[in-house]
Design brief:
213 residues; alpha/beta; four-stranded parallel β-sheet; two-stranded antiparallel ribbon; 47% helix; disordered C terminus
Length: 213
């Protein structure tokens, strides 16, 4: 009898919220998240993308970046960063920011932020600035602590509140539903499909993860 261990997927991301999203996606796709690299902005990921790609010739990886305003759509950015991806690399681009993926599950986000569901954008990937839209949603929250944590204080010069990141991580870990969100965000749907394909390919290609009894 053999016991098949879950596939372990290494990751590289821009920041802490992206890490929480990737961990949730990998678990949802039926694998485990291994080491997570980067987490210090987009420029660092771009500098190291060839190294991640080389590592993905031997083991499964996911790299997640935001499209932002770097290109009109994902393909030109992918071509500029990495024209040739290794077999075990899932290189995905969130349109335009990962906050759009979170807004794509309107029911749970409205409940978390304590706002009316009609306030959640119905086409979040068409937003020019999803992070700003998320802050504005929090601004309308009926919960004072949500407003204090996620909305920047007047005169602070910041674009988000002091606990914006930790609040989004809390939401991702507790409430966010990737399968539901994927129905309203094509780039997320593509990321989930890529991950599932990567995990299936890895499980059938590597002999190492099986234990025999």
């Amino acid at each position: 009898m053999s016991i098949q261990r879950p596939v372990m997927v290494s990751a590289a991301v821009e920041g802490i919220v992206d890490e929480a999203v990737v961990r949730k996606l990998v678990a949802h796709a039926g694998a485990r998240t291994g080491p997570v690299y980067g987490k210090d902005g987009k420029n660092l990921l771009k500098q190291r993308i060839n190294g991640y790609n080389n590592a993905a010739r031997r083991s499964p990886w996911i790299v997640l970046v935001d499209l932002d305003r770097d290109a009109e759509c994902a393909p030109p950015l992918r071509e500029a960063w990495l024209p040739q991806t290794a077999r075990y690399l899932c290189f995905r681009i969130a349109v335009r920011e990962v906050e759009a993926w979170l807004m794509a599950d309107p029911e749970t986000l409205a409940g978390f932020l304590r706002v009316a569901i009609k306030c959640i954008p119905t086409a979040p990937e068409q937003l020019e600035n999803p992070k700003e839209a998320m802050v504005n949603l929090a601004r309308d929250s009926r919960r004072r602590d949500i407003r204090a944590d996620m909305v920047p204080r007047q005169g602070s010069g910041r674009t988000v509140g002091p606990a914006y990141t930790s609040r989004l991580v809390e939401y991702v870990e507790s409430d966010w539903r990737p399968e539901v969100a994927a129905q309203h965000a094509a780039s997320l749907q593509g990321a989930l499909a890529c991950l599932r394909g990567l995990i299936e390919t890895t499980a059938t290609s590597f002999e190492g993860p099986a234990d025999s009894e």
